[in-house]
């Protein structure tokens, strides 16, 4: 993509949407977008990457100590016990022969911690993924067409870490507002000796999560952040990756690169490219291991919860090397 005019977000979005559209690519009934690139051969390739058997959870915690501050009614998870050891010990549960137990419940927005953005999460000028009218796709009953449940069997294959924070940044971190370009992504892949292509699940580490863990959450949920430049839309489309995730709240650089704009790369990537996007992933332990052994590819499984009609889902991604 050529240089962007920061005064014209609408024009840039419209041009990118037209140039990089995947509408109709997998038929008018498609519900999974770029996950179509992640086929049986790609899963076999990913499974063959397991050598040491060491595994990493790429999930942040789901608890009250998270980063959410109430934007668009997003809160941190509320975990409540329904039955406890105290109830059992005091004989309050009414079970026979000394058996007792504990039960609990959690209440949370589906995108309050490590998560996937489903294809019904973002619209472009009234259109959802594959050109469908947004009002006919997502209603008060949920996402009637591209609900996250359709992706539940799909997200497992070859994972690739691009540790842009280590390769491009200072002391392993990119500063807030740093726009990661295609050149940065390519240079990082070259530095790691890894290729990125069709059907891959790419995880991009900026180092922002490491910084906020050290300094406090601050504006992590919605504030300034390093992230992908709007100009990477062509790379996201042309590389034919299945999905991409970052360690930041919003995937793309914040503040955005246009005046009076909000998440313009989302507007191209989700409803037009059909790309599955993950946010707030914890890549720290995996990145340390990759730096130690020089291997930046691995088996990755990251299935969303099968929540009917949801436009996003919590996830506990597991990388195995």
Short description:
With 321 residues, this protein is α/β, with parallel strands linked by helices.
Task: Spell out the key features of this protein.
single chain, 321 residues, alpha/beta, Glucose Oxidase, domain 1, nine-stranded mixed beta sheet, two-stranded antiparallel sheet, 24% helix, Cyclase family protein, arylformamidase activity, KFase/CYL, KFase_sf
Task: Please characterize this protein's 3D structure.
This protein has helices at 9-19, 40-47, 85-89, 134-137, 164-168, 182-192, 208-215, 233-238, 264-273, 284-293, and strands spanning 55-57, 78-83, 103-107, 115-117, 138-139, 142-143, 156-163, 179-180, 201-205, 227-228, 243-246, 276-279, 297-301, 312-314, 318-320. The protein is an alpha/beta fold and 321 residues long. The protein has two domains: 9-71 and 109-320, Putative cyclase (Glucose Oxidase, domain 1), CATH 3.50.30; 79-107, no CATH class. A nine-stranded mixed sheet has the order 1-15-13-7-9-11-12-4-14. A two-stranded antiparallel sheet has the order 2-3. Strands 5-6 form a two-stranded antiparallel sheet. The mean pLDDT is 97.
């Amino acid at each position: 993509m050529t240089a962007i005019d920061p005064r014209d977000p609408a024009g840039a979005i419209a041009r990118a949407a037209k140039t990089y559209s995947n509408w109709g690519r997998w038929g008018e009934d498609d519900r999974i977008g770029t996950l179509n690139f992640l086929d049986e051969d790609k899963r076999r390739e990913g499974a063959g990457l397991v050598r040491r058997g060491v595994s990493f959870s790429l999930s942040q915690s789901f608890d009250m100590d998270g980063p959410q501050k109430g934007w668009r009614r997003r809160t941190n998870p509320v975990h409540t016990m329904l039955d406890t050891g105290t109830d059992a010990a005091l004989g309050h549960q009414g079970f026979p022969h000394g058996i007792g137990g504990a039960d609990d419940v959690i209440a949370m927005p589906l995108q309050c911690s490590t998560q996937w953005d489903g294809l019904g999460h973002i619209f472009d000028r009234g259109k959802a993924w594959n050109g469908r009218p947004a009002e006919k796709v997502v209603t008060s009953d949920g996402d009637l067409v591209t609900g996250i449940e359709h992706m539940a069997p799909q997200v497992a294959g070859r994972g690739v870490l691009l540790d842009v924070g280590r390769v491009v940044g200072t002391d392993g971190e990119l500063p807030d507002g740093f726009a990661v370009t295609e050149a940065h992504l390519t240079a990082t892949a070259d530095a790691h000796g890894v290729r990125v292509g069709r059907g891959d699940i790419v995880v991009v580490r900026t180092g922002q999560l490491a910084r906020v863990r050290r300094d406090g959450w601050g504006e992590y949920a919605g504030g300034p952040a390093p992230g992908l430049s709007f100009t990477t839309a062509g790379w996201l489309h042309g590389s034919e990756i299945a999905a991409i995730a970052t360690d930041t709240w919003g995937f793309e650089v914040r503040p955005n690169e246009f005046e009076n704009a909000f998440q313009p790369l989302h507007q191209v990537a989700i409803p037009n490219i059909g790309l599955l996007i993950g946010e707030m992933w914890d890549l720290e332990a995996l990145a340390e291991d990759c730096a130690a052994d020089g291997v930046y590819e691995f088996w990755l499984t990251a299935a969303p919860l099968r929540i009917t009609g949801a436009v996003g889902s919590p996830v506990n991604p597991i990388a195995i090397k």
